[in-house]
């Protein structure tokens, strides 16, 4: 048996999707919140019977392989590999292993990680840096920390000795070349401490190199490569995903050292973005593991900025957000080393976003003078206005009135004149475009619905073929399906939907799967009788719409035609068509 088919037999779509999305029974299908876009009401449908999962909000989905491709952002061969592992199916050896750029890139990174690890063991100065920062040997091993020696070719030679060629090394960005034309390549990271970056499936995708002592840049990072898409990677998610699920909370910190020290101190749900601002995709990724996140960013102004930005983004993603105020230190790394108990207590007691804004506003502006008061209102009122109930608004306004020693009724008045657009300090910063996350609108045509009915009630196909008026162009998206239906119809006396499917290309079969689900989505709990009625109605409407279009065409032609003979012919045709209208 083909290994793809074997995997399909062993893996149920509902079990697979259930590992990513919480599913609830809905008729003969299951439903949940879409893993591909943000939504509050479930439109992601899983059909155990048909073996497919599809979102009627953003129109993405398919069978188990397609689902893995989409949710893990991998190619088809990689999806096969991931599923083979889950189902214990042995893949044939000759399966192209490294012809995929991403796979080769990861393979190079695996060797490179190992190389840097060994170099760290051989360099006391580098190893001491980590030990002096309080890391244990165990921690160094867990995070696969390493050292890039002060050499232009040690790594390069090592990898070439393993059989990789220059082109692969350049593509993986473990080496540099001075210019495109330059054939000489040299190690990218030299004399730096190395933090390998893994994706959440434990694949090394890139590296960050920190200088020992002073110098610029402090951190040197791998650029984006076939394996490394920075906006999709969260540092340490591979080590923290279990703890994030258990604690039902993810803690975002700023730096690699913050993450590592936090994990060593028992905060094993800490993660970081890789030297970039958090992105909508990263938040989407974290939503697979928890809906609750807390930001523990540095206490300097850049950290505050980052917190504001992250909160805005997380609110759009519909996550529950808290803020951890870091005690005794500017970042978690320092805080943990100075006051472990204080850090642990801060982690246990994150504050609400509103409390964070309050404490920020009152630290930043002087509430004792009028200008300060105005600034505080300018900052806080638009945020308070975002709350939906007057009760919540009232609570914060009361607090504000008390702090500012003013009458709460005046603040209600100010609130009503405040525009809702938040004026965070970061509003001048470029915002992450939310469009990428917005569902694409798609309207299905009557022809598509009718195809869905045929797949669900194959007996009706005769009725459809007999009643759809011949030689009338159908919706171009579906015309080919109807042509194949007709072909199968003239060949066989009874309809087996698999005969029909066999005639289709892979893409068209996927399309047909979606049409099949369409009926479950739009006509749940439909009886056969109701289906009959609906099908009749659809056929009538399709015919009517198509005839109407043809009529209009003829009317224009007749009006434009100057030759009386032509005109007469056109009129005859037109009358034929009118007769058809009477029939339907
Ligand atoms: Zn969706």
Q: What are the SSEs and their pairings?
A:
Layout: H1 3-10, H2 13-18, E1 24-26, E2 29-32, E3 44-47, E4 52-55, E5 61-62, H3 64-72, H4 76-87, H5 101-121, H6 124-132, H7 137-142, E6 146-148, H8 154-161, H9 166-172, E7 175-177, E8 185-187, E9 192-198, E10 204-211, E11 219-221, E12 234-235, H10 237-247, E13 250-253, H11 256-264, E14 270-273, H12 280-286, E15 292-295, H13 301-316, E16 320-323, H14 332-338, H15 340-348, E17 351-352, H16 353-364, H17 370-385, H18 390-404, H19 408-416, H20 446-456, H21 461-467, H22 479-491, H23 497-502, H24 506-522, H25 528-560, H26 564-583
Parallel strand pairs: 13-14, 13-15, 15-16
Antiparallel strand pairs: 1-2, 2-3, 3-4, 4-5, 6-9, 7-8, 9-10, 10-11, 12-14, 16-17
Helix pairs in contact: 1-4, 3-4, 5-9, 11-14, 14-15, 16-17, 17-18, 20-24, 20-25, 25-26
Zinc ion (ZN) is lined by residues 34, 36-37, 44, 55, 57-58, 60, 439.
Description:
- By secondary structure, the protein is an alpha+beta fold.
- It has four domains: 3-87, Zinc finger, CHC2-typedomain (DNA Primase, Chain A, Alpha-Beta Complex); 99-228, DNA primase DNAg catalytic core, N-terminal domain, CATH 3.90.980; 233-440, Dna Topoisomerase Vi A Subunit, Chain: A, domain 2 (3-Layer(aba) Sandwich); 446-583.
- The chain is built from 26 helices and 17 strands.
- It has a six-stranded mixed beta sheet, with helices on both faces.
- A hairpin with a 7-residue loop joins β7 and β8.
